């Protein structure tokens, strides 16, 4: 039988897209811990969260700092609506604005102190990632921090399946190697880059806008 990459693509997309989006919940406790470490507990602070999903990390950040204001960006309209409803339930709607937009089209005069980009980089093809990171840097104040988490390739079957899904799905790209993320952050004009493995195959990157 001939190998049909389009058929495999369609099957992976149909069978696993939702599953992989949900799978980012498995690292929720780890990211909550990251949020607690990166958000100062007091003082004015503006956070931009890209690909905010349900808004759960925005809630944690707001719980941590009563003066924090947040803009959350979310590509899918229904998910953005869900996040917006959640902000009302959590009574943080006065401090949080959720926008239904693609980060690639997002423009803002407002500058942020911290930008979070959790579990999202493989939603962009490899060739777009340097430009994307540079675009993200454009919303940060000098000295502002970009905080990025991502799965990276590993010799483990669930990670390999995730990598196959991301590689075969239109508009997405393979899981990045940690060194490659660091190189792209440098290319994009960041410095003070730190990379930490939080659990096997799951990495945290911190980078400062130069
Ligand atoms: C794997 S989920 C991660 C959600 C959340 N950051 C987390 O870690 O739980 C990726 C989210 O980013 C959103 N997303 C994907 N591409 C995007 C883009 N270009 N601009 C804004 N949001 C995007 C998706 O709709 C989805 O809700």
What does this structure look like?
This protein has a single domain (5-209), classed as Rossmann fold (3-Layer(aba) Sandwich). It has helices at 5-23, 28-38, 56-64, 77-89, 129-137, 157-168, 178-187, and strands at 45-50, 68-74, 96-100, 112-118, 140-151, 190-199, 202-209. With 210 residues, it is of the alpha/beta class. The longest helix is centred in the first third of the chain and has 19 residues, at 5-23. The model has no long low-confidence stretch (mean pLDDT 93). S-adenosylmethionine is lined by residues 21, 24, 50-51, 53, 73-76, 79, 102-104, 118-120, 123.
Helix % is 25-40%
Oligomeric state of the chains in view: single chain
Class by alpha and beta content: alpha/beta
The average pLDDT is 93
Question: What's the total helix number?
Answer: 7
Count the beta strands. 7
The distinct ligands, each listed once, are: S-adenosylmethionine
Detail the poorly predicted runs: none
Quickly name the level 1 CATH class. Alpha Beta
**CATH topology term:** Rossmann fold
How many domains would you count in the coordinates? 1
List the secondary-structure elements in sequence, H or E: HHEHEHEEHEHHEE
Shape: globular
Main sheet characteristics: 7 strands, mixed
Radius of gyration computed on alpha carbons: 17 Å
**Beta-strand fraction estimate:** 25-35%
Q: Give the distance, in angstroms, between the N- and C-terminal Cα atoms.
A: 54 Å
For the largest beta sheet, what order do the strands appear in spatially?
Answer: 3-2-1-4-5-7-6
């Amino acid at each position: 039988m001939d190998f049909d990459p389009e058929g495999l693509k369609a099957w992976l997309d149909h069978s696993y897209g939702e599953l992989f989006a949900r799978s980012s919940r498995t690292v929720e406790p780890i990211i909550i811990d990251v949020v607690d470490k990166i958000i100062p507990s007091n003082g004015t602070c503006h956070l931009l969260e890209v690909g905010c999903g349900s808004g759960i990390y925005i809630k944690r950040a707001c719980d941590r700092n009563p003066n924090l204001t947040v803009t959350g960006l979310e590509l899918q309209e229904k998910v953005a609506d869900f996040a917006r409803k959640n902000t009302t339930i959590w009574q943080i709607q006065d401090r949080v604005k959720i926008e239904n937009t693609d980060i690639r089209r997002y423009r803002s005069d407002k500058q942020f102190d911290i930008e979070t980009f959790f579990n999202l980089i493989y939603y962009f093809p490899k060739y777009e990632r340097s430009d994307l990171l540079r675009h993200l840097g454009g919303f940060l104040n000098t000295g502002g921090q970009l905080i990025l988490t991502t799965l990276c390739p590993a010799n483990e079957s669930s990670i390999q399946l995730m990598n196959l899904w991301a590689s075969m799905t239109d508009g997405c790209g393979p899981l990045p190697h940690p060194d490659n993320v660091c190189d792209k952050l440098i290319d994009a004009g960041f410095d003070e880059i730190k990379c930490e493995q939080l659990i096997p195959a799951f990495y945290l990157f911190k980078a400062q806008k130069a």
